[in-house]
Amino acid sequence: MLMIQQGPAAGPKLKKIIDSNFCDGIIWDPRDLTSSRINQYIRENIEYEDLVKVMEFKQYYQQFDNSDKKKLKDYPEFPKELIDRAFLRRQENLEELVHNNIDFQQSVELDYLCTPTFYIESFGHRIIERVLETWQKNITYMNSHEDSNPLFATMVISENAFSNYDYINEFLEDLEDFSEELEGVYFTVDRNEMSSLRHKFDLAHLTNILQFIYDLKVMGFKVIVGYTSVEGLLYSSVGADYVGTGWFYSLRKFNRVQKGLPPEKAFGIQKKRYTSIKVFSEVPLQEAIYNVGARSHPIILDNCSLDRELILETPIDILNSNDCYLQHFEEMYKYVQIFDSLPDVSDKTNKVLNLLEEAETNIQLFNNLPNNTYTINSGHIKQYSDAIKSVKEANFI
Amino acid sequence: MEIRYITKIDIETILDRHNIKYQSICPFPKSGQKAVFKIICDPNPIILKIYNVTPYHTINQMEYVSHVDVDELKVQKNEEIRILTMIIAREVKASKKCPIFPKMIITKDIDEYRVNEHLYKYYFEELVDGITMNESSYYLEENSISQIAYFLDAALELVKKMWDKTYVHRDIKPNNIIIDGERVMFIDPGLAKSANDETLTRTGMAMGTPRYWAPEQQEIQSNYNWTFKTDLYPLGLIAIEMFLPELRRLSEDQLKDMQFVYKKWCEKDQFDKSKSFFRDIIVKLSAEKIFRRASSIEDIQKTLVEFKESD
After folding, report:
1. Residue A389's pLDDT band (boundaries 50, 70, 90)?
2. pLDDT value at position B107?
3. Distance (Å, rounded) from C-alpha A30 to C-alpha A27?
4. Which end of chain B is more exposed for a tag (fewer CB within 10 A), N or C?
5. CA separation (Å) from B79 to A344, B62, B206, B221, B267?
6. CA of A239, closest CA in chain B: separation in Å?
7. Given B258, B283, B295, which is nearest A219 (Cβ)?
8. Does B18 touch chain A (CB under 8 A)?
9. What is the pLDDT of residue A265?
10. Is B201 in the same domain as B247?
11. Does domain A2-251 have CATH number 3.20.20?
């Protein structure tokens, strides 16, 4: 299922996506929207009633001294001290973190509650003990208050933490103790590389992320993966129940640096893009469609509402950015639904491999168009395909 | 001091103690310190289990020591007896708590039998109809996915009943499974452990047959939190041997190497149904990592339903 990863400038984008029915849920971000504003959205649009609603309080911003906390710093429930080793050693701090986190989430109507979110550099770091301890405190607190809301263990994990699976195995062994009490796990991967190739992934990291999702599902947890782009379909194929995606690049690819320093200043004007699973990429409209013209249409366009404008060659400046963001949701939602409809992980992973194979062919076709000066990078297609094949082989899928 | 094995006269003496008039005595294969006999008598045949708990180790050690502290010797002997009695005590406790095991009869507790310094502990048990699994058609004939699914479903039901009483068998193997028609039973819960039991620290005694043991059983762990997942592991291995009888002759390492087994499995049957049985059942029973095994017995039984009808 697809969730909106709410971020900055939400107003019209939220309305468009929700009115178009291109999502199953929403992950609210109190860093950009206050709880009263969130409640206002919910009150004003009946469609929210049918959506799965989650809100992440993002305490990990307090793990970094110079992070841009935006609205977070204004909430009385948000931790005031830096969350470092000294802070985490004190039991009363963990307890306060838990109580405040629950209190804060109670201010909004939610379907799933989250534990306090920590940033995890490595599953071998000592912070893991504190993280598990905090989850246990969260469960105990909710039990003592007869709060039966489903709880998600929530964390942001550095991509480097997925370089080796040994520590992850140990973490999963510990997590097993929580299988009765936790409904699921909501995690976001901090993509530590800032490559200009937006879909590029380290093969070992990606394989281990997919294995991690698969293992969580085998253990009976629901899984939400936040801040994803087209690779979210890979996550869905190995069992993720929900993938979160947003309108801006920073909501489709989480990066710690970018999160601390406003991306608008760092990266200038955003290019309008078209998300096409036919090429398994988000391609820039100008270079890949407008400059190439009608020959690009059968290769890239994938039956979305925006296609009409593109076929009519409506000038790119006239295209509403929000309609381009909506197209991303339309395309992602269409494919996430296909995966959700397939009966088992074998069918899902076979489907994603087929899509990747078709994408490879389409990219070749596109790149070889006469007089085409723009190249769609296909490096990630092989990475994605190899990662899925590795997981299939390791798990007899 | 030499080990003294139980004789027919010993058995007759024990039977006489309890006024049991027997017609014949059939011994089962001896294993370790345990000797098991089937006693044909009226009104029904019964089982007599006798454990040799003589503290040979302490006694033999003292033969080479010139000065013996009598008190210390007594303490050491008692400690050795206590350890040797642990398995029989566990077996009886499990049979009293778990309805799936054969019931203790004739006596209310374990009795002692002595011949000079040789000490034995024994109890009687109801005789369970049927034959051990390795003598049954499950092991003598080729099995289909559907037959394996039926067996696993019945065996998982027993694991579930044990776990309902917080018990884990920890020694499920073909020799400890009795088949009576469609009925499946587990016997010999000598290694059975309740989550509520005191901690067992292993002392280097040979316990059970490692071939079917789960990886977590092979490391000495004094405070391990045992769950039903340890009992899932041997069931997957047994299911593999049911489908691929040639693997019974191969080493334990090969049987537990899932990539190796999968290759053999696919060589035998390439159909999707068979592959999904391996993925959705076998791997969820016998994954090396315990967190990859099924977290719910009911869920895996639900998955088995479709395979029961698959042939």
Report:
1. very high
2. 93
3. 10
4. C
5. 55, 15, 17, 21, 53
6. 14
7. B295
8. no
9. 44
10. yes
11. yes
